[in-house]
Amino acid sequence: MQNAGIATLGLNWCYIAHEVHPDHLRDAIQGAKAMKYMGLNLTVPHKLLAMEMVDVLDESARIWGAVNTIRFEAQDLDGQWKPLVHFGDSIPEKIRTRGFNTDADAITRSLREDLGMNLAGAKVLLLGAGGAGRVAALKLAAEKVAELYLVNRTSSKAEIIAAEIKRLFPQIRVAVGYPAGSIDLVLNATSLGLRPGDASPLDEKKFSLRNASAAYDMIYRPAETPFLKAAKEAGCRVANGLGMLLYQGAKALEIWTGQKAPVEVMRAALVKNIY
Ligand code: ATR
User: Which residue ranges does the record assign to the Shikimate dehydrogenase substrate binding N-terminal domain (predicted)?
Assistant: First the structure.
């Protein structure tokens, strides 16, 4: 995905994956800095650790408490910190790291663009209260959904998120448990569906998918989980989490290059490589 985007932008860069032990994360970031990398993406378990390791935290990382994108920056002649892309072939001596989070915005962008959701005023049932579920819940609240129902195997975790939302967004109706009436969106943020034979994250005895207009599964592999299949059969509009993966990457590319990411080229590369 990134290499397809980089090629389309005409940059002489490449995107490569490194496996890094958590104990070596600081060294890995410093090493990339020394080798004039433009930026990095980080994934589990590095996103939280990196919060302490970057020189500057962008607001996106501060809000979500996790760093999935690092940009290397240097000072221009006026003393302004700029992305390394501004410095051409020169090798700045002093480089700093800025940490961003592009995951949270990717959730709502995918809901809007891949599922056609209008989130303001929507009624949403969110399944899952782990790391991804918490970010989704807060992000949906920030987008001013009207009603949010939280369901999780361990309901105490849903209660904690509900309390957090009540405190930060008092105008939103938030409840732990299944809704009684119809809703606009059911969103799966649990890991159920990743493995063959997984049960559905939704208890259809307590909520029928016929009462939902749209369903989204954060899982993108398999492309169609049993949950999404059931939702489609019940007549819901559906989308899987491929868009989340795409948009977090597209935003990262924009952060490094300062250019608009060629999203459809990147989507095609992603689909080709993961299915
Ligand atoms: P992530 O960062 O992907 O959110 P996580 O924090 O481990 O990962 O959260 C996994 C989510 O899937 C949680 O909501 C978890 O429910 P619990 O909070 O009760 O653990 C849910 N989940 C995982 N396996 C599950 C299962 N077998 N049945 C129901 N829910 C499950």
Answer: 1-70
